[in-house]
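Q: What would this chain look like folded?
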Amino acid sequence: MLKIIFKNLWSRRSKNAWLTVELIVVTLLSWIIIDSAVVSLHDSNSDLGYDADRIINITMECIPRDAPTFDNSAYDPEVAKQQFETMLFKASTLPEVERMCHNYSGINGDMWMSTPMFTGDQAIDSIAPLVTKIGFLGDEKPLSVYGIEAAEGSPSVEELEARPLGPNDLIITESIDRYYWPDRRGIKDKYFIEPYSRDSTRLNVVGIVRDFRHKSFVRSGATFIQGKEHYKNEYYNKTTLILRLKPGIDADQYIRDNIAQITSQLRTGNYYVRSVQNQRQMIGEEEYSYGISSHRNLMILVAALFLINLIVGVTGCVWLQTGKRISEMGVLRSFGARKSQLMRLLIGESAVLATIACLIGIFIYFNYALSHGLACGFEDNSEYMPDNSWVNSFGAHFAIISAIVYAIILICTVIGTYFPARHVSRIEPVDALRDE
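A: My prediction, written as structure tokens:
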């Protein structure tokens, strides 16, 4: 069968030229559309590195000082501190809450920074990749709240949270540990020098945890957790209560059932509840605000419409060509060829033609990609510390997207060929040879 397919394609090469050129162009366009869509879907569905399904974020703010309901007596720092601690106690006693911490942002929030970090062996003017730094109050226990696990060679989460995290203490992720100390496990004698500090502050590594992503669109898991102090004037700033629900509790349902109780119970002094969100909702809203989700949905829609048009186009081209091969099919039927054999012959010709066109198109795009690169997601993750994702490996990235493009075009070509092939294979030999 394969020998006959190649023979037919060679004898009809001039007639198949237009369909071949069309499939090559389709391959190039498919690469552009599918590459962006697949990378975006990969980033949004990749493991975050923490238990996002059981996290609820409650944003607390203070009533403005010029508001009629503002309590002036609570403006005293000591009174504000007491009310702040009362609010935290109330949050910790909410129903179905397993653990709680608070911060001015938290993971996937706004208060974070990307900075180069240097070990004691590096010169400050050397090149260092960006890493993310998130600051938590020293007495907080974010690891157990978010469900972040300790890495091999590190003290356990319980041990790390047994003592306050000081401003000169660092908890690093595995990516950072592998990058700076690939041949040395554990935390002994591992430290960084605070960049741009006047006194070259030494930041000691006190723990190592599994990689987690502070943003859904930042692929790198390289993150620092650093302790910070609580200043008096910060009691009047926005703060976020991060709640971890007990196992088996649906976060959406919990918010719907308890929103009134949360709002009334946490109202303390000048503090009021600004918003209540689960972590997944928070991620979705952030992606929407950055235009990530709309771009991803647009790419998926364009890809779907493009593939539908591809099926229709292939069907039209093949139908036109098979209509001119009715007598040929009649001769084959008169020599004993079965309907299924004719269908396999026509579909096989289209599949081989699509394969050849795809290989040519992929080769053309390969040369383009060498100079212009491949899709890297919403944010240029190349600035961050490298991760092990296939997206950052040119070879793996190109091979995976090429395989997806080839599979989609092959499926669309087979679908587009099936209907005209089914039609022409059912024509009786007498009817096919009537005009001969």
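The longest strand covers residues 55-62.
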